[in-house]
Amino acid sequence: MPSQTSDRPGPSSYAFLGPAGTFAHAATQALTGTAEATLVPHGSVTQAIDALRAGLVDGAVVPLENSVEGGVPATLDELAGSPTPLIIAAETFLPVVFDLLVRPGTTQDDVATIATHPHAEAQVRRYLLTELPGTTTALVGSTAAGAEAVRNGEYDAAVAPAVAGELYGLDSLEHDIADNPGAVTRFVLLTHPAPPPAPTGNDRTTLVAYLKHNRSGALLEILTEFSGRGVNLTRIESRPTKGSIGQYSFSIDCEGHIRDARVGDALTALHRLCAEVRYLGSYPRQDGQQSPVPAGRTDPEFTRAAAWLERIRSTGEA
Ligand SMILES: O=C(O)C(=O)C[C@]1(C(=O)O)C=C[C@@H](O)C=C1
Fold this sequence. Notes:
Elements: E1 13-17, H1 23-32, E2 38-42, H2 45-53, E3 59-66, E4 70-71, H3 73-81, E5 87-95, E6 99-102, E7 113-116, H4 118-131, E8 136-139, H5 143-151, E9 157-160, H6 162-167, E10 171-175, E11 184-191, E12 203-211, H7 218-228, E13 233-240, E14 248-255, H8 261-273, E15 274-284, H9 299-315
Parallel strand pairs: 1-2, 1-3, 7-8, 7-9
Antiparallel strand pairs: 3-4, 3-11, 5-11, 6-9, 6-10, 12-14, 12-15, 13-14
Helix pairs in contact: 7-8
Bound molecules: prephenic acid.
């Protein structure tokens, strides 16, 4: 259970991409895991994050990346460019399995229009082309919003989680229709900046780096700061800064915690080299992978090396 992130009294409240029945809803339940928490649905990732910024909730759960479709631009851009800094307090990985949901009595031949979320459409595109040729797909705010719209008679079918079918009284024409079976989406719990939880020994740190100069080797330079300290990156992607064309920031996940010497050292090096480094949180890693610390890069080795340097500086002797 993540720590409460505001001084507001009473049970914690969390915004999520709604309505009820989205994958984001399941992720919010997994991340907040308490019957007392109030879960507040919002129509988009941006609105969920705005509710957090406005102090209406204690946290917001949003998708950050998907194993098939990659990063979620709305989330990455809100984190990179927002005037109110937010941080990631926790992550969870959710298997995403899509059903083709219809009103009871509808057959496959009756389906002319389909509603789903753009990320979901990208994961079932080939299935729709092959199994439902000639249909049109409307991109809506979420998978469950698509299911709700089918219930309301606006579309013939929705691509959504099975639970959305149960919630909106729909039948499943087919289960697990994804083009790439086994897809997973990573969701993160956002809060206002707070001291990071203590390192667990298996953590992840997220940041955004804005390069100082657009010149050859600038990206290599910052990558070298990580690799030289044995800090493995688990994700790096560029996003336009929204200024002039060709200007990009780099959204980065690395193994380790900001309190780990090797990570702290790499981040201070980036701070020297970059126009801006936005720290977005250190939190326990939840993908079942381990973050090994390479030899020569452990905290005690950093401490011994610093003491050695200090001895030389003060006494002239090693
Ligand atoms: O529409 C939903 O159910 C969501 O939770 C959003 C979302 C996404 O943004 O990627 C989450 C997981 C799936 O990959 C498809 C859609």
